From TrEMBL, chain A:
Belongs to the binding-protein-dependent transport system permease family. Residues 69-280 form the ABC transmembrane type-1 domain. GO terms for biological process: transmembrane transport. Keywords: Cell membrane, Membrane, Transmembrane, Transmembrane helix, Transport. CDD domains: TM_PBP2 (cd06261). The chain crosses the membrane at residues 12-37, 68-94, 106-123, 155-179, 200-228, 264-284. It is a multi-pass membrane protein. This is Sorbitol ABC transporter membrane protein /mannitol ABC transporter membrane protein. It comes from Gemmobacter aquatilis. It holds the Pfam family BPD_transp_1. It is found in: Cell membrane. SUPFAM superfamilies: MetI-like (SSF161098). One of its GO terms (cellular component) is plasma membrane.
From TrEMBL, chain B:
Its main location: membrane. One of its GO terms (biological process) is transmembrane transport. It comes from Gemmobacter aquatilis. It is found in: Cell membrane. It comes from the Bacteria. Residues 72-262 form the ABC transmembrane type-1 domain. CDD domains: TM_PBP2. The chain crosses the membrane at residues 12-36, 76-96, 108-129, 141-163, 184-209, 240-261. Pfam families: BPD_transp_1. InterPro entries: BP-dep_ABC_trans_perm (IPR050901), MetI-like (IPR000515), MetI-like_sf (IPR035906). It is a multi-pass membrane protein. This is Sorbitol ABC transporter membrane protein /mannitol ABC transporter membrane protein. Keywords: Cell membrane, Membrane, Transmembrane, Transmembrane helix, Transport. One of its GO terms (cellular component) is plasma membrane.
Length: 290, 276
């Protein structure tokens, strides 16, 4: 249909975006790869030397790496479990007719718009603080010892904070999906005597599967790179108890000035993210065809 | 009988939904309340907080001590600047992919999306060093460029899904009537695409406003947006609950309001059109 002329024009119009994204993807990444093979410390400029895979060896064999990897997986997994189960339950609830639906919906999605540094600091100080936090006040009211969340359960506390920020996202998407559920089919099943449980298992769940997959994949991409919440609450500590891979890379390169080691860690993070990305891309790619 | 059970059911749903809604919203509500209390009252027990006097002192103090307005303006400039820049690059690209699709358009779109999958830490070191060497650390211009690049794939994708919904026949007709490319874009496409563009802008402003990796790594003071400004409260001196609450309320209020208007677009934008 399109003429040769408009094809050329189209190519010209798409090229700035392509060139920019290409440069953005290739240049810094190539530099990271290059640095990852160097012994390069910011405190000793001009002393760079080629070391082969040493940085990778040291980064991977450091016990902090295993801790960070496990913490990363726990953080992603924990938040996913809370937001998926919570999201399905909330979406089902909000899908029912009740008074003030609009207002409740607004309240439920609000945490998603709170910037990460605010949500982390508010939870840390106003709620989890063992002296003046709300949880401490409540514990004292009932005669219990206040619990120091971020000192004794740092990762679990961060999971809670991040889950609070992401629950609105899964709820909103699953609610959108629920609203496209075929109501006539539901009513037909009800008339045929299908119980609530059966309708949920055989109609609602299959209908939601695709959206749940999308939620899992997109959240995983974002959750793999949680950073601000850790920076302002625990600084990765105590020890490495709440250090994830992004935080470890940051600490290695900008706090310890070890550019080579940090770069090796960065490349490892890229590889991990790519494994997830492959699945996500397939999902979205399939969707493009329909 | 049946009527009665429906009524009971609605009542139960109403109570449950409101309770859960209020619980989820509570942290935000609480900082709004604490922001209007004095520092001494803000650390009291919840009941004592509620019955204490209201004051605007914390808001004054936040502005005086840390120049809140500068950081607010930085957030505005960064989010609007990066959004506009992304639009300028993305509109022509999305237009041509939606209306003159080639054999490779799908691959191209997928590739653009894949750039979004790259974790930021993977390029933290070179970005930091480049910013340092070009004197871009703590400058607005440097951050605008980075925020543009990280959100560009989402902007292109969102615009693409909206443009796709515009019937191509209308463009054909305009072309038949002798409209050139420029007229086609300006007088036919733009008016039809404005709602889609507006939604894209809204979502992108929200994402840029809340971006908290590059803004924390690449700014310290003069170009610092609100994310970095709030992070400075993580090592506070003295009593600071009321001030932190006031600062937080001011940091999230604009985006909370924008966000409430963009619920639907949010779903579409964040799932790259996979859920509408």
């Amino acid at each position: 249909m399109a003429t040769e002329h408009s094809r050329t024009a189209a190519r010209l119009m798409v090229s700035p975006a392509v060139i920019l994204l290409f440069l953005w993807m290739i240049v810094p990444l190539a530099m990271t790869v290059y640095f990852s093979f160097l012994r390069y410390n910011l405190l000793m400029p001009g002393m760079e030397s080629f070391t082969g895979f040493d940085n990778y060896y040291y980064f991977l064999s450091n016990s902090a790496f295993m801790d960070a990897l496990v913490n990363t997986l726990l953080l992603v997994g924990g938040v996913l479990v809370i937001t998926i189960f919570g999201g399905v339950a909330l979406a089902l609830l909000l899908d029912q007719p009740f008074k003030g639906q609009g207002i409740v919906r607004i309240m439920v999605i609000a945490p998603f718009f709170v910037m990460p540094t605010v949500s982390a600091l508010v939870w840390k100080n106003m709620f989890m603080n063992p002296v003046n936090g709300m949880f401490a006040h409540i514990a004292k009211t009932f005669g219990f010892q206040p619990f120091d969340f971020l000192a004794h359960a740092p990762l679990a506390s961060i999971i809670l904070i991040v889950a609070w920020s992401w629950l609105p996202f899964s709820t909103l998407i699953l609610l959108t999906a629920l609203q496209s559920l075929d109501q006539e089919q539901m009513e037909a099943a009800e008339m045929d005597g299908a119980s609530w449980m059966n309708r949920f298992i055989y109609l609602t769940v299959p209908h939601l599967t695709r959206s749940i997959t999308v939620v899992i994949l997109i959240q995983t991409i974002f959750l793999l790179s949680v950073f601000a919440e850790i920076l302002v609450t625990t600084n990765g500590g105590p020890g490495t108890a709440s250090t994830n891979i992004p935080y470890l890379v940051y600490a290695q390169s900008l706090l310890n000035y070890d550019v080579g080691g940090g770069s090796a860690g960065g490349i490892i993070a890229v590889i991990l993210a790519n494994i997830v990305a492959v699945f996500l891309m397939r999902m979205i790619g399939k969707n493009l065809e329909t | 009988m049946a009527r009665k059970t429906t009524q009971t059911r609605t009542a139960v749903v109403t109570v449950a939904a409101w309770t859960i809604g209020l619980l989820i919203f509570f942290p935000i509500l609480w900082i709004i309340i604490l922001g209007f209390k004095s520092e001494g009252d803000a650390i009291k027990t919840p009941l004592a907080v509620l019955t204490s006097d209201w004051t605007l002192a914390s808001y004054h103090e936040v502005q005086e001590r840390s120049n809140y307005f500068l950081h607010f303006m930085n957030s505005v400039i960064l989010s609007l600047g990066s959004t506009l820049l992304a639009l300028v690059i993305a509109i022509p690209a999305a237009w041509s992919m939606a209306f003159v699709p080639g054999k490779r358009t799908k691959d191209l779109l997928m590739w653009m999306l894949s750039t979004k999958m790259m974790p930021a830490v993977g390029v933290l070191v070179p970005m930091y060093l480049m910013f340092r060497d070009f004197g871009l650390l703590d400058t607005r211009i440097g951050l605008v460029v980075v925020l543009t690049l990280i959100n560009l794939p989402i902007v292109i994708w969102m615009l693409y899904t909206y443009f796709k919904e515009i019937p191509g026949e209308i463009l054909e007709a305009a072309r038949m009537d002798g409209a050139n490319l420029r007229a086609e874009i300006l007088h036919v496409l733009t008016p039809m695409a404005v709602p889609g563009i507006a939604s894209t802008v809204l979502l992108n402003v929200i994402l840029a406003w809340n971006e908290a990796f590059w803004t924390l790594q690449l700014t310290t003071s003069s170009a610092a947006p609100l994310t970095q400004f709030i992070a400075s409260y993580s090592s506070p001196e003295g009593l600071f609950y009321a001030k932190l609450s006031a600062a937080s309320t001011m940091a999230i209020a604009p985006i909370l309001i924008l966000g409430w208007f963009s619920q639907k677009q949010l779903v579409r934008g964040l799932t790259f059109g996979a859920v509408k």
